[in-house]
Structures are given as structure tokens and as C-alpha cells.
Amino acid sequence: MDNQKKIEVCAYCSGLGPEEIKELKRTYKAKIGCVGKCSKKCPELQGKVFGFLNGEFTVCDTKDAFFAKVGALGAYQKTTDQNPLVDGFLSTETKWRAEFEALRGIVLACGLTEELKWGQPCYTCQNSNVLILGGFKEYIALSFFKGALLTDPQGLLVQQTENVQSARQLRFTATEEIARMEPVIQAYVEEAIAVEKAGLAVPAEKKPELAIPEELEARFRENPALKSAFFALTPGRQRGYLFHFLQPKQSKTREARIDKHTERILQGLGIDD
Predict the structure, then answer these.
(1) How confident is the model over 31-86, as pLDDT tens digits?
(2) Rounded-to-integer distance, Cα 116 and Cα 155, Å
(3) 267, CA 20 to 30 Å: which among 102, 113, 139, 174?
């Protein structure tokens, strides 16, 4: 159980600036990431300062008022297996909310820890990612991070694209389908937990090196700090940016993408952080 304050805010939509975010991280070891709510989804939050304080979604009119509430917090006491960040995410979900709730119940019953990562409900075991829930246009997916290692006795797992090496999905389109398959889903989740506890890993495939686009090289010459920050990123984060920058055929589009993400790179963030 945590013996300190639990503060979770988004670096982009919380209403806090970079310096306030740094202060939270430095002073309170706050978690910085998507909190499942933003002003785009919730227009009433525009101009407000908000985040989860000890698990409770808190909205203030000013930064000073928000920091006053942070200062008044006591130690965090966990009272439920359900993560309030996921509650916040579900409160703005419209298309697949019932299906999310149904899958959430099955997964939590298997003893996994619920978190919100990459803006989606994510479930961990021993601090390692086991599965994540995501809503798509045609279906909702329960995605296993190491799905390639599951035995898949019923042949239900789907490889989302040919470039996905490790993850595999179970796909659903209705709560009735989830209810009917509950024992099967539970069996797949339990096997995924066993894989994680056994410390198994999907053999890595060597990926070809991605070239650095000329437009990024030009930005490096103009801004040496950007070059230093980019090469300080993990190899995975570098690949994520390079793949994104290399996709457009037109140079102007590549330049626009680089300029859009320059600040994130300088902050040490990956494209999906």
C-alpha cells in the first residue's frame, strides 16, 4: 500500500504548464500521463486545472487552487481494485462502454492490477503489462502483450497486422458475445498471467535500421539540443519517431511532423507517451 500522496495528471490537457508538471514530478513523484479525461472530450474542463488526487478526480479554476489541494493531501489509501483513471476513461466512452465494463470485470476477477496506459485500460502483473483493452471502429479488442506465446487452443487470437510481432487480440462486438465466452476469456487471461510469472519472452526479431530523413538532419543542424535530445531517447522511441517522420511522401509534410513533435522530443517523451 502506498505511503505517500498519489497524484496523476496529464502533461498536455491538465491545464498545468511544463514548470508545474516538473514541480509535481520532483516534489511528489506524481504520475504524468493520460488521465482519461481531456478538454476535447469534456468541454466543461476547458480553462480548468484537473487531475486525480488520491484517486479522486479534482477540478480547480486556478493552478494555485490545485496546488493547495495537493498540499493538503494525506497518504493515499487504496480502497478498490478499480482504478479511478479507468473510471474517468469510461465516463467519456460512448461506443463500447458496456463491452469495456464486461471485459473489465472478467479481467479484474483474475487478479490483475488495473492501470490507464496510452489512454486505454491496461492490466499488469508484477509491474509488467499483460493485456490492454481498446475500442476500434468495428470491434473492441482484448490485446495480450505476449499473445504470440499463448497456446490459443480455439484459434481465436488475431494478429492485428503482419508487423506486430508479439501482441495478439481477442475481438468482440457485443456484450452478449463476451458473456457467452466468459470462461474462454478467463482461461486465456490466466494463461497470459502464467506466461508473465514464468518470465517468458517473445524472441526478438532484428528490425532493419530506419534512415534519418533529410528534414530531421536539417533540424539537427539548426537545433543541436534537438539532436542531443533525440539520441538520448531509447531506441524504441527513436524508431517510433523515425517511422512517423518517414511515412509522408512530401518533404513539407515530413517537416510539419518534425516541427509538431520537436517539443516532445526535447522533453524526453516518445511519440506515444
Answers:
(1) 888 777 777 778 889 899 999 998 888 999 999 999 999 999 988 877 778 998 99
(2) 28
(3) 113
Secondary structure of residue 118 in the 3-state scheme? coil
The CA-CA-CA angle for residues 108, 110, 114, to 5°, reads 35
- Tell me, yes or no, if the pTM score tops 0.90: no
84 — phi, psi (to 5°)?
Answer: -60, -25
At 133, give phi and psi (nearest 5°).
Answer: -100, 140
Q: Please give the Cα distance from 60 to 43 (Å, whole number).
A: 15
The strand pair at 7-9 and 113-117 is best described as unpaired
DSSP 72: T
Cell readout for 132 is 490492454
Strands 31-32 and 7-9: parallel
Q: CB neighbours of 254 closer than 8 A, spacing ≥ 6?
A: 213, 215, 216, 245, 246, 248
Q: Which residues, 6 or more positions from 62, have their beta carbon under 8 angstroms from its beta carbon?
A: 49
Q: Which of 40, 72, 38, 36 is nearest to 53 (CA)?
A: 72
